[in-house]
Amino acid sequence: MQSIILVLLSSVLTALGQIAFKYGMQSFSDINMSVSTAPRVLWQVFTTPSIILGFFSFGLGAVLWVFALAGLELSYAVPLASVTYVIGLVAGVMMPDV
């Protein structure tokens, strides 16, 4: 039961990370990156608070996923983690601007 909770928490954190990435990248949608501007643009992207939050959430989800795998068969854990897609879909419908 504990491993199932870990998979579900991992799924929620992964979906939140993806939403944060999308939110953070909206302001960069029209930037053209070239070799000369790449360092500056990458610095701007990776220092955006939403992107930092996304990496933190995504990373924490990955850590929980590893611990969940210790107690579940992969053939059970992976389908259960597909709830991440459902969360992303619901978030996309409920927050159409993101």
Summarize this entry quickly.
77% of the residues lie in helices and 0% in strands. The protein is built from 5 helices and no strands. It is elongated, with a radius of gyration of 16 Å.
Polypeptide structure, described:
With 98 residues, this protein is mainly alpha-helical. The relative contact order is 0.22. It is elongated and about 50 Å long. Helix content is 77%, strand content 0%. The N and C termini lie far apart (34 Å). Helix 1 packs antiparallel against helix 3 and helix 1 runs parallel beside helix 5. The mean pLDDT is 91. The longest helix is centred in the N-terminal third of the chain and has 24 residues. The protein has 5 helices and no strands.
Please identify the structural class as seen in this structure.
mainly alpha
Q: How do the SSEs run, as a string of H and E?
A: HHHHH
Largest sheet entry = none
From the spread of the alpha carbons, the general shape counts as elongated
Q: How much of the residues is beta strand, in percent?
A: under 5%
